[in-house]
Design a protein that fits this description.
Number of helices: 3
Strand content: under 5%
Helix content: 55-70%
Structural class: mainly alpha
């Protein structure tokens, strides 16, 4: 019986920060599709009701969430859990 080895590259925290800084929730697509979907909906609803001023709050949240997602992803790769 042979073992299948899957090699996946680790994700960069720097790339995650740059993408979420410039693209907001769209930068979360680099790390987590689920995070993108949640923040896209939250940002859209809040931006509508606050005329965009809520982006000063939700944009940093996207950046932090991106960092947490990258660290979690890389930890899973390092431990061998997929």
């Amino acid at each position: 019986m042979s073992k299948t080895i899957v090699i996946a590259p680790m994700k960069s925290t720097g790339v995650s920060l740059i993408l979420t800084f410039f693209l907001g929730c769209f930068g979360l697509l680099y790390t987590s599709v689920t995070a993108f979907i949640i923040m896209f909906i939250v940002e859209g609803i809040l931006a509508f009701f606050t005329l965009g001023f809520s982006l000063f709050l939700t944009h940093p949240i996207c950046m932090i969430w991106g960092l947490i997602s990258v660290k979690r992803y890389n930890r899973k790769l390092a431990s061998g859990i997929r």
